[in-house]
Amino acid sequence: MPYLWLGLIITAGVVLQSTVVSFLQVGNARPDLLLMVTVSAALISGRTSGVSVGFFSGLLWDLLTAQFFGMYTLAKLITGYTVGGFEKKVFKDNPLLPLVAIFLATIFHEIILYICALTLGIEAPFFLLIGKNVVPSAIYNCLLMPFVYFGMFSFRKLIWPLGRHTTEF
Amino acid sequence: MPLFRYKKTAIFIIAVILVIVLMHGTATNTYKIPLAEGLVRIIFTPVEQAVSKLAYGVNGWFSSGAKLMSVYRDNEALRQEVEQLRQNNIRLTELNSENQRLQALLDYRQNAPRFDLVTAAVIGREPGTWFSTIVINRGTDSGLTKDMSVITPQGLVGHIVSAYETSAKVMLILDPRSAVGGLVQRPESRVTGIVVGQAQAAAVPRMTNLARESDVIKGDIIITSGLGGIFPKGIPVGEVYDVKNEEGGLLKYAEIKTAVDFSKLEEVLVIRSAKSEIPPAVPPQPGVKQ
């Protein structure tokens, strides 16, 4: 059961995202726990973990919310892949790393969602969306990200018992 | 290794393409995945319910705390409002009191057209055993000079001893250095004397230099006599409440309760000039002793 804890973290993230997060919404800013888990996994363990966590967390979320299946799967998959590419180039214990990573990843993730929405015929004013929703959510994610990232970083040996398995794509 | 590397990249690209196809398929209702959705829903629903219940409980707890804080803030705001209203009430009461006093001064001015009066506020007091003076907020700028009489509608206050540009010092009739020519207003009496302050009893000036046989009795109203050139005639000074003989002499003195309550002195009138001599306070009557 090498991926038990990772599975539990994703499941817990999905459950919390669908239940508790609505209480944490401030204005238009809403934290994305699944994105935090995806980015943390990608930063700690590389692309394979980033893509896997992004894929499964996005998939579960898509299945659970059942709006447009695949939107979140795709967005998190690509975000996990992209962030995972930086895994070897960063100092993992730098306290600023998760903050910068989640801020940029949130914007990147939302841009992918925006493009997906556009391709599905949903239009929205891009810059208004960025200013009113995306940036506040990115800042909100920055506040919570250290807990998720350093929590997972502290238990990385438990979460990834087989060691670092980030074979480069 | 390169093959493995490309294999993973290929899987990633295939996964992306698959997801895009699925996304468009489900969006256009071409494909449906009710089984997967249903399965996930079945698994997650009880968990979500339990966590939601817990979350609602926690949220309710926080909301109660927030409400308590809100009540506390409201309470603080209401306290401040009450304090503000209390201050306003005090201010209005003060304004009302000031209005009444100024109205009385105005009435007096209208009823005493022979006086050229200047209204002044008391801005300083120098009460003491030896001296009784006040400072008013009018000075030479307002035409005030030394030795001008200071009154209120109730009676005599004193006279200016020093005039500055924007203020003046007034010696009260309670001051031991003060000497005012006094006259018993009662037509049968009309006895004159000198009203002087006392160091030993600052609130009770005396009318001195009264002959023992002079007709001064308790209850007599003392007004200024106009003698001495400082105080115009006819301004009330006070009321005699006791008459005593001087020790070892032929004179007696009257203790006077002043017409003015000096403890409540806030505004005064300064007589810049008197246009004519004041007529007697009481019209002369035939057969009355002058």
Provide a brief overview of the structure.
Chain A has 169 residues and is mostly helical.
Description:
The complex is a heterodimer of chains A (169) and B (290). By secondary structure, chain A is an all-alpha fold. Chain A has a single domain, classed as Orthogonal Bundle (Arp2/3 complex 21 kDa subunit ARPC3), CATH 1.10.1760. Chain A is built from eight helices and no strands. Chain A has helices at 4-19, 21-24, 33-45, 47-65, 71-84, 96-119, 126-154, 156-159. The relative contact order of chain A is 0.18. Chain B is rod-shaped, with a radius of gyration of 45 Å. Chain B has helices at residues 2-27, 34-111, and strands at residues 115-127, 132-136, 149-152, 155-163, 168-172, 179-184, 192-196, 206-211, 221-224, 236-245, 251-258, 267-274. Chain B has 290 residues and is α+β, with helices and mostly antiparallel strands. The A-B interface holds A 14-16, 18-20, 23, 48, 51, 55, 60, 63-64, 66, 68-71, 73-74, 77-78, 81, 116, 119-121, 167-169 and B 4-5, 8-9, 12, 15-16, 19-20, 22-24, 26-27, 33, 36-37, 40-41, 44, 47-48, 51-52, 55, 58-59.
Count of helix runs of chain A: 8
Low-confidence stretches of chain A: 165-169
List SSEs of chain A in N-to-C order: HHHHHHHH
Count of β-strands of chain B: 12
The top-level CATH class of the largest domain in chain B is Mainly Beta
Indicate the mean pLDDT of chain B.
82
Gross morphology of chain B:
rod-shaped
Domain unit count of chain B: 3
Radius of gyration of chain A: 15 Å
User: In percent terms, what proportion of residues of chain B is strand?
Assistant: 25-35%
CATH fold naming of chain A: Arp2/3 complex 21 kDa subunit ARPC3
Topology (elements, then pairings):
The complex is a heterodimer of chains A (169) and B (290).
Chain A lengths: L3 H16 L1 H4 L8 H13 L1 H19 L5 H14 L11 H24 L6 H29 L1 H4 L10
Helix pairs in contact in A: 1-4, 3-4, 3-5, 3-6, 3-7, 4-5, 5-6, 6-7
Chain B lengths: L1 H26 L6 H78 L3 E13 L4 E5 L12 E4 L2 E9 L4 E5 L6 E6 L7 E5 L9 E6 L9 E4 L11 E10 L5 E8 L8 E8 L16
